[in-house]
């Protein structure tokens, strides 16, 4: 059995590799990366694979039984890139393809959901046994701003009172490993989100409680939040996307109460307080 992971040196991919190594022999794991030399510290076989190079993908997937297709980070190019990977998997006889999509991809208003919907359709039409992991937001997407909130005296966003059911990358990595190492997941789509939900005001209150400083939540318009992010050095396009996703969160796009994630990994998802504590270290 050979299990391959795309984007294996990424923030989610390397966690999956490390957690897999704790459950199966390292020689059964294949890290698919653009530059294999950069994956040397993973302790598994590394193969060159680029979503934009179909022939290289076919070579990289030769002999692979299960493939975890972690969605590309190149927004706007992902649908084509993912289709290249799916076609290569089909040609090389991959027996099970697991794809990381986005929470409620079929109905989500998030701008990034369109490409996920396209990939899900391509996967379903491929004839390859598949599992779709519709991952919610990473808690780290928000706690990564803790330092800035402390420095600026407020946590800013555009999510109003929308509730966010996020989970950590480690939680989502455990879900991927559970599917890769157990049976009965073919043809299933999982809506994966944290057990608890919170508003950004509640997140700010938790930061305040743990830091001992008063950090209020300041809700901004999408335009003002995007402008603030641009002022922090983010590219204008990405800043606008982040702000628009917050606005979608205000309307429930990042909320889910099904607890499918904790059921899949066999434990509660990581509490918000724990992630805030890590961010404050």
Automatic annotation (TrEMBL):
Domain NAD(P)-binding: 7-182
CDD domains: TMR_SDR_a
Protein name: SDR family oxidoreductase
Domain of life assignment: Bacteria
Source organism (scientific name): Hymenobacter negativus
SUPFAM superfamilies the record matches: NAD(P)-binding Rossmann-fold domains
